[in-house]
Write a structure and sequence with these properties.
The protein contains five helices and no strands. α1 runs antiparallel to α2, α2 packs parallel to α5 and α4 packs antiparallel against α5. The protein is mainly α. It has two domains: 73 residues; 89 residues.
């Protein structure tokens, strides 16, 4: 699930990367504007910092939900890569079961809290907090779907890939 394959999922993955790049560009330009207003014009404005924080929250959670691939996630590679295919399958199922249970149990409370936050908004841009934090609900649902998919593949498909530390990437 995810990745740079062909078809609809490949296209959606590429658009998610594009959206993430647009968020980074927005955050960067807001940061530059903040510097220009504060130090060149001697007129500090708060909306630029607020926009940077909003973009950071959305970049991290959106990126973790839709752009970071399974092989780029942080894990204990020493133990995982030393195990055989059957042990990797068991480790994946155990960690997936724990994550599905924890995120699944937290989802109603997360939904309730995010829904409740409609009564507050940000100071400068007046973004309602329920809209701002809705990305966390999306993140939780994406994590649940991802680990349900990985569990399904571990049980009925092939074993998880063996980790090759010589092919490690930065995750970006």
């Amino acid at each position: 699930m995810g990745g740079s394959g062909n078809g609809v999922f490949g296209w959606l993955y590429a658009r998610a990367e594009n959206l993430l790049a647009a968020m980074l560009a927005t955050m960067f330009f807001a940061f530059l504007l903040q510097i220009a207003f504060r130090y060149l014009l001697n007129f500090p404005v708060g909306w630029t910092q607020e926009l940077s924080v909003v973009m950071w929250i959305w970049m991290v959670l959106f990126g973790a939900a839709f752009v970071v691939r399974e092989e780029e996630e942080i894990r204990f590679d020493l133990i995982y890569s030393a195990a055989g295919p059957r042990a990797r399958r068991v480790m994946l199922l155990a960690s997936a079961a724990a994550l599905i249970a924890l995120y699944g149990m937290s989802l109603p409370a997360v939904w309730s809290y995010v829904s409740f936050m409609k009564v507050e908004s940000t100071a400068y841009l007046k973004i309602r907090f329920d809209w701002l934090y809705s990305i966390y609900v999306i993140f939780v649902v994406a994590v649940l779907v991802r680990y349900l998919w990985l569990s399904w593949n571990a049980v009925f498909g092939k074993a998880p890939e063996e980790v090759d530390p010589t092919k490690a990437s930065s995750g970006v």
